[in-house]
Amino acid sequence: SAQTVATVLVSKTIEVVAKAGPEGRLYGSIHAADVAAAVLAQAGVELDRKKISVPDHIKTVGEYSVGAHPHPDVEFSFTINVVAQ
Asked: What pTM value is reported for the model?
């Protein structure tokens, strides 16, 4: 099932909505829990936040590559798009 999750997420771009100022700077930052909630809502896949590695301090809108390691034998990256609310 971890390989199926990888196949689904690699082919999608997950949109994460966050409050941001006019210059695209976020009020706060994006964490693994935010990504996990967006994955569940948009892809219907439950991914443990502890198995997601988010780049250091996502504080601006834009596209980012996020890593996931849902199983010892399965590791992959997928794209998130942080957009302003």
From this structure: 0.92
